[in-house]
Amino acid sequence: MSAGPRPAPRSGLRDWLLAEAPSSRRQAALGSAYRTWSQLLRNPLAVAGGLIVLGLVLVAAFAPWIAPDTPYGQSLSERLMPPSAEHWMGTDELGRDILSRVIWGARITLMIVVLVAVISAPLGLLVGAVAGYAGGWVDKVLMGITDIFLSMPKLILALAFVAALGPGIENAVIAIAITSWPAYARIARAETLTFAQAEFIQAVRLSGAGHMRIVTRHVIPLCLSSTIIRVTLDMAGIILTAAGLGFLGLGAQPPLPEWGAMISRGRTFILDQWWVATMPGFAIILVSLGFCLLGDGLRDALDPKGRT
Amino acid sequence: MAPDMSAIPQPSTRPARGLRRASRGVAGFVLTTAVTFLGLLAITFFIGRVVPIDPALAVVGDRATQEQYEAARVALGLDRPLFVQFLVYVGDVMTGDLGQSITTNRPVAEDLARVFPATLEMATLGILAGVLIGVPVGVWAAVRQGTWIDQVIRIFALMGYSVPAFWLGLVGLALFYAGLGWVAGPGRIDIFYDGLVEPVTGLLLVDSLIAGDFTVFGNAVSHIVLPATILAFFSLAYIARMTRSFMLDQLGSEHVTTARVKGLPEWKVIWVHAFRPIRVPLVTVIGLSYAQLLEGSVMIETVFSWPGIGNYLTTALLNADMNAVLGATLVVGVVFVAINRLSDVAYRLLDPRAKR
Asked: Where is the ABC transmembrane type-1 domain (chain A) (predicted)?
């Protein structure tokens, strides 16, 4: 590795980032982030996915300014109008502009996705890291519970939880989070096992760090990148489950402009007024596809082993 | 609905040597399976406990006196410790007692036995189509890696993770039933033909063939073709994606290069040298996919009013019929676990490295 003359000092931010021998920890971190970033940019599908996700965030943030109408603005004289220049996606059975509802619905979808990720990813990370780090019976018990949850079909489990907790968007989020964390626990444990006995962990332990500190400061950060990939890949599934719960009337309740609930309302008119149910579906497909493409690209950039 | 993307089975590296080791493996397998089933029961029991509806209050009503309420609690066994209640629940389930459904007024176990064949029929057709199309498509994409064919197949496969099943069902109904009139509408069979065939297996296609009634068979086919195709799409997407990934691994390996260097025809390189080794992991993928179809059929059945387990579950959900919900959840969970364990066993039996 160290053979050959050292490269002459080069100027420019790019060279500093790609330096073979970074002089500080920050430079190394920024350098590896830059490498991941440029690899991601070389993958057109990943860029497309990233743009779609960015679009979702922007649309959700600026919904009041983008949407031509409010999501609840009824106009009974204009009910069930087909798509036109005035109503790009047509109107629903109460004369509400579907495009506006789809745009406002981006907020709900984004909120569900973020909440599920915020609840389930840290939970899974903690369970997995503790199991992998502690080993022994702690590992057996925690992974036993994880495996039981993993062995259940996600949607069915979420349905049963919502049935018990009662319909509503908060309970839907809780139910989806309960079914999502085991996958992250598995990943975090597998990652932890690869370095639980490594010398740098021993060193930290010898320098007097407690178990809690080792797990939260040294183990979990190293599991982050593979968990982030997995969360991104799971986003599509979370969106579909949330929409499914909404469709069954167990998730977001009308008149909330949740995409799944909107499709459910449009079900009655599917044979004559196809646009009522069809339009929100395109939004779901686009956003889910965006997360899938981005997750695929992230995995290829961060973890070359798991290429599919 | 989205199948586990990371579930790429790893080749087993532990060869089972000797009878003693094998028997220990069997015991461990039985034990872990038993623990998983017990865990399943614990989850459904827990869900049944956290229901905000007080079951005793539901029996006696709001106007009951304190004594009546207490009596109902004792009669339902709710006064006993939670652990004892759980044991009673496990005992009940073991003897096939899943409680009474409040919507159908029949035992849940009986209901489930009645609706299960409808789901099985649809999911089986779905997986057959998924395998027959998904595997060749995946191989094709791997062989043509990087070309536009590969990109199209990849996007198509990703669609399987992004399209809501219920939405696809609705669009399919609007297009092929209402629009083009190519297929029959919701339900398993036209009311006119309902009950004409003696149920033997509960699978309508098989029963109508046994009875030799081709009118009923044709009608059943035109009802099942759309929902089964939509289910097939989801398993196809997953199977094609996995096949592509396995094939890419093989095509890049040395034994395939050797076969090419020897001058073997390309079809032989692909189907004999590259494809043969991936048959074993594919079995696991197909097993997983089959189990996931049972789950996916919940949404499809709701859209198509298909009288299967998914439709039963969602109907029960909307009527707050908890016995039926938990019973259906349990049965789907058990089938799910069983298929997963079976594909695990198949993997070990088929992988030559795992043989003595």
From this structure: 106-295
